[in-house]
Design a protein that fits this description.
Layout: H1 2-48, H2 60-64, E1 84-90, E2 95-101, H3 105-108, E3 112-114, E4 127-130, E5 148-153, E6 157-169, E7 184-191, E8 202-212
Parallel strand pairs: 2-3, 4-7
Antiparallel strand pairs: 1-2, 1-5, 3-4, 5-6, 6-8, 7-8
Length: about 220
């Protein structure tokens, strides 16, 4: 008799526990998409605000180097992946962006990211750099042909003039080329600027020719 009572008591105790676990699992499964959506919307709202570079922008690049600094191209060292090795500036559109070597999602949350298969400033090859349209590359919406863009690195400063802007499909591989001996700076971001809902299958490209920065 006592065994039967103990069995019933165990059942009474287990049923509420199982019920609570089941409800918790269903709540987690059902609420996970909502939490993800809320987090995404929160990030987008934060990105829509005015960007601040106090924690990421390193003014030492400006203080240490001048545009006429001589350097040997052989002395250029490839940065470590994820390194903040430079800054991008454009006074015409009030843009100041930290430049990282690599273009992972984590790096693009900190600043602009360089595609590592492209050239470094001063190497004489095309340079491909991407950034988010809702924060770091938002000022590109106002850029125009003739504007000047400066890249400050830890080995020198390089100046580029905007020659053209273009909107292309994200899948359009003809929108840029990384083959060639001409040093061309190519910046790109999602288009339309600041669009939160709908397809984001287009990219806004800015093409620039190098005008300053010396090499031996």
């Amino acid at each position: 008799m006592s065994k039967r009572k103990n069995k019933k008591m165990m059942q009474y105790l287990l049923h509420p526990v199982i019920f609570i676990l089941a409800i918790s699992a269903l709540s987690y499964a059902g609420g996970r998409p909502l939490l993800a959506m809320a987090r995404a919307n929160m990030n987008m709202l934060i990105e829509k605000g005015a960007p601040s570079y106090s924690n990421e922008y390193n003014s030492e690049f400006t203080d240490l180097f001048t545009a006429d600094k001589q350097f040997n191209i052989k002395d250029i060292q490839i940065p470590e992946y994820g390194a903040h090795y430079g800054n991008i500036l454009c006074q015409n559109i009030d843009m100041k962006v930290p430049l990282y070597y690599g273009d992972s999602d984590e790096l693009l949350e900190k600043g602009a990211g360089q595609y590592i298969a492209s050239g470094l400033p001063g190497e004489g090859r095309p340079i491909l750099i991407g950034g988010h349209d809702s924060i770091y590359f938002k000022p590109l919406e106002k850029i125009a042909a003739g504007d000047t863009i400066e890249i400050q690195t830890n080995y020198g400063i390089f100046t580029y003039k905007v020659t053209e802007t273009k909107v292309a499909e994200a899948s359009d591989t003809t929108a840029y080329s990384l083959i060639g001996e001409k040093e061309q700076l190519i910046l790109y971001t999602c288009y339309p600027f600041g669009k939160l809902i709908g397809d984001r299958n287009q990219r806004f490209f800015v093409y620039c020719d190098k005008t300053d920065g010396q090499k031996d």
